[in-house]
Specification:
By secondary structure, this protein is α+β, with helices and mostly antiparallel strands. The chain contains 7 helices and 21 strands.
Length: about 300
């Protein structure tokens, strides 16, 4: 098995947890994502990505449905998350598939705020007075930087891309532990933009790829994994040795770095993909996470002495 070259892999549902997502089909069918990383390491993510993230696959890409909304939540950035919990922070990005009438996103603050005002508003039932809200439409994209308070009201279906982190701080229950990393500046309106909206961060980058004809991808040059989501229509991926993988609409495909060069093509009519990868990181970046299995990421109620100001 070790001598076989890795191939493009369909990722199945994430109900069991993202790192327990199963590979569908092929000689690795039934293998979970975390088992795949333990077995093949940098062959999956690429040497540079593995150097930064170790055995932890760096991003999550999921289709989510919030029929009754989502509670207010905030995530720390990499610096705070590593210092406190030896874990990744959580940069996040939402692509709206559909939103029911009356559904809204809560994204950051309306205007500059301070910890006291925020505390009183969230614990006094007056969150609506300080939170910036948006009425989303299908096809819109919203980056959610670390430190941004966010939530959902109503019925919304979306694609979520974020770092592989368990650090979810629910508000107001966990507000005390999050006060020093919340972004108290007003949410920038340009953060909500109609797709195609590209996002490029040290943690991950997102591209929107319209396919009306075959497209050659030079994966051997980038030497990094790619996640492909069939946003509109189905597509095929053909490797250099002629192996073809078919992906239906709404399917998620993991293309390991070892696959190298490949060709994408629409299956039938035109297709649109979302492509997620991690670009080469510079040595000047502060955070290096080696995927420590003994991470304290599940201990998200530190004492005041552990906080970083």
């Amino acid at each position: 098995m070790e001598d076989k070259k890795l191939y493009p892999m369909r990722l199945l549902g994430t109900e069991r947890g993202y790192m327990e997502t199963l590979i569908g089909g092929g000689w690795l069918g039934g293998t979970s994502l975390d088992e795949l990383m333990e077995l093949y390491m940098d062959r999956v993510t690429g040497e540079d990505v593995f150097r930064w993230y170790g055995l932890l696959f760096p991003v999550q890409m999921r289709r989510l449905r919030f029929e009754e909304g989502m509670p207010l939540t905030v995530h720390p950035g990499d610096e705070v998350a590593q210092a406190r919990y030896d874990a990744l922070g959580k940069e996040k990005w939402w692509y709206i598939l559909q939103a029911a009438p009356g559904a809204r996103l809560q994204l950051g603050l309306k205007k500059d705020c301070d910890a006291t005002t925020l505390w009183e508003a969230l614990n006094g039932g007056k969150a609506g007075e300080i939170l910036h809200t948006v009425t989303p439409r299908g096809g819109e994209a919203y980056p959610i930087p670390a430190g941004t308070i966010h939530g959902i009201e109503g019925d919304i279906e979306l694609i979520e891309v974020c770092q592989s982190s368990e650090l979810d701080f629910r508000l107001p229950e966990m507000l005390e532990d999050a006060l020093d990393f919340i972004d108290y500046r007003p949410y920038k309106k340009e953060n909500g933009a109609v797709a195609p909206a590209l996002l490029q961060l040290p943690q991950f980058s997102i591209s929107r790829l319209p396919l009306s004809q075959p497209l050659q991808i030079r994966g051997a040059i980038t030497d990094a994994y790619t996640l492909l989501y069939a946003l509109e229509g189905a597509f095929t991926l053909t490797t250099e040795n002629g192996e073809v993988t078919q992906v239906p609409q709404d399917g998620i495909l993991l293309v390991p770095a070892e696959v190298g060069d490949y060709k994408l093509a629409p299956a039938g009519s035109d297709c649109t993909l979302l492509a997620v990868t991690t670009e080469r990181r510079e040595e000047s970046d502060d955070i290096t996470y080696q995927g420590d299995p003994d991470s304290d990421a599940d201990k998200i109620q530190p004492g005041k002495a552990d906080r970083i100001s």
